[in-house]
Amino acid sequence: MKRRSFLITTAATAMIASAGLPAFAEEPLKVGFIYVGPVGDMGWSYQHDQGRQAIEAEYGDKVQTTFMESVPEGPDAERALTQLALEGNNLIFATSFGYMDAVMNVAAKFPDVKFEHATGYKTADNVAVYDAKFFQGRAIQGTIAGRMTKSNKIGYIASFPIPEVIQGINSAYLHAKKVNPDVEMKVVWAYTWFDPAKEADAAAALIAEGVDVVMQHTDSTAPQAKAQEAGNVITFGQASDMGAFAPMPRVTSTIDNWAPYYVQRVGAMLDGSWASGATWGGIDTGMVEIGEISDAVPAEVKAEALALKDAIAAGTYHPFTGPLNKQDGSAWLAEGVTAEDGELAGMNFYVEGITAELPQ
Amino acid sequence: MITLIKRPTPSKTWSWATPIVAILATMIAGGFLFAALGKNPVEAIRVIFWDPLFGPNAAYFRGQLLVKAAPLILIAAGLAVGFRAGIWNIGAEGQYIIGAICGAGLALAVYPAESVWLFPAMVVLGALGGLLWGMIPALLKIWFNTSEILVSLMLVYVAQNLLAYMAFGPMKNPQGFGFPGSRNLQQYASAHNPELIAGTGAHWGVMAAIVAVIATYILMHRHLAGFRIRVAGEAPRAARFAGVNPSRLVMVCLMLSGALAGMAGLFEVAGPNGQITDGFNSGYGFTAIIVAFLGRLHPIGILLAGLLMALTYIGGDMAQLMLQLPAAAIQVFQGMLLFFLLGFDVLTNYRIRIGKGAKA
């Protein structure tokens, strides 16, 4: 309790100090970011930084953004967030799941600072959460993979067995299976979000097992490079477009486009309408973007993929539509029933047909 | 012609002067690095070394300095004893993890029972876990003459996998919606390692670090056992004649350093970090090796070195935020410190003679 009041006093002092400045020079809204990786990872953190730059481009002098990169989850994140708050940032984006408890701790100490936490589930009056429906992109990837695989083996480099990743594996598998009943899914758990060496090893292992499609839920381009070496293996850009590897091996990509959301939230701060909440955006809001489908994809497959994308965007098709069973054969969704967001958010099982075992 | 001439005995003066010279050299070389990145070098050095101590909001950062330094000092104090004896425990990171798992495991098993005995019991279990993990390389060395360097290092990776297994499996928060990570011990009163004096950052781990410094000082410099340990490191044969049992020495050194590392892990998981997560270990066990050498394997030196290392972390974060220096540049800066230390260490054991080479 004491510590809380100490910090509030410090923050208040800082605010009084800044309020003492000439009032005609309007203070810009200060927006801070912490990234879990380097901004140059060309994947997750890079995309968040693109969102930050979009804020600057949109609001110019009215905002001032800063960021800290490669902030480890845990106490270091808590310190970094406190530091951003002490520096007078009014809105702080914490862009990794593992920052969750740190955000909650710091948010409690700085009730006047607003926090936005990516991919988490804890909210407060001054903490909003946001995430993207990446599984929508996986549906399109699965369709292309199912159509294009010759060995009928699809490899998946998974990061951590958390709902977001499991949704992706299930969605990719279901849609590959839909167009090609013979497909088989091989999953390798890399236990990292970003580690080029590990990701390359995982890709090499999958390719050695005969897969000719490599999907990745990790952020480096190392699997793309391995696939390129191997020749007839296709991949999908993850988080960012990874267009340097087009047209082969990268045939399309799922891009996390945080810019529209970030611009909107900063706008809400500027006009005073910011409110806490939970946002789960998809293809419809532009948060999930499908990168250009390259010429390596046959025209009819491309048309099929684009039609699927349009159906998802229009809301006429949901990637998880019954009848669907769980891996153990028990019923999950009845005919025509679609999965609810809340249920997906906690997804901890494979769908029927995946033979791999989910690490517990 | 520059020649190195071995000193008959290591120079006392240089042994204490090298860390200071190394720090100055790091500041100069780092200054050039920052200048090359287009930042004002003087300002960067000021932000890293001065601002966390005396800048605005220093009251908060001074506390954080203790939070960051405590585990480093606690681990390094134990490692230094072994290093003096020529027993190289490189696996403190693993012992740190196991300590955290054992201590937190107890709390998670009895949750939500409240008892004043819980936290002390967790500390004991944490120390015991680290001790046993440290005993593995000791026993293998005694029985099979394996290298404790390799075995202790490899056990870090085993511990890391065990940690991931715990975070995703048995210790996963049952109320965590399928997300990895244990319950947060900060929200469990009996298990929490809180700040003892609000606003100072000082938790039980800081106290333990201070006690460890005093205890190892007495052991190494005021006690016959310490003399034997040092002799064993400097002149193994002489030590054997003096009645030192090498097997027992290996056991004692690895168990002591393991126990201290395990305790450090427990204090961290129950305090600043709060959770068992797959990324719980943030390299303290490895950084502590640098701290031990930077502190000349002397308890007081380690105390100062731990604080200095913490300062470069916290100041480095500040430099990132205030000057938008890339995180990688800060890491290079930290690496330089060890590089220069080892480089200037030559002067402890050698004299430089400039001019004609020594007689042929």
Automatic annotation (TrEMBL), chain A:
Signal peptide boundaries: 1-25
Protein name: BMP family ABC transporter substrate-binding protein
Keywords noted in UniProt: Signal
Gene Ontology CC, one term: plasma membrane
ABC transporter substrate-binding protein PnrA-like domain segment(s): 30-309
Pfam families for this protein: Bmp (PF02608)
From TrEMBL, chain B:
Any Pfam family the entry gives: BPD_transp_2
The keyword Membrane is annotated on this UniProt entry: yes
Localization, UniProt: Cell membrane
Alphabetized UniProt keyword annotations: Cell membrane, Membrane, Transmembrane, Transmembrane helix
UniProt GO MF annotations: transmembrane transporter activity
Annotated transmembrane regions: 20-38, 58-82, 94-111, 117-140, 149-168, 202-220, 249-267, 328-347
GO CC terms in record: plasma membrane
Topology class, membrane: Multi-pass membrane protein
PANTHER family xrefs: ABC TRANSPORTER, PERMEASE PROTEIN, GUANOSINE ABC TRANSPORTER PERMEASE PROTEIN NUPP
Protein name in UniProt: Sugar ABC transporter permease
Provenance organism: Pseudothioclava arenosa
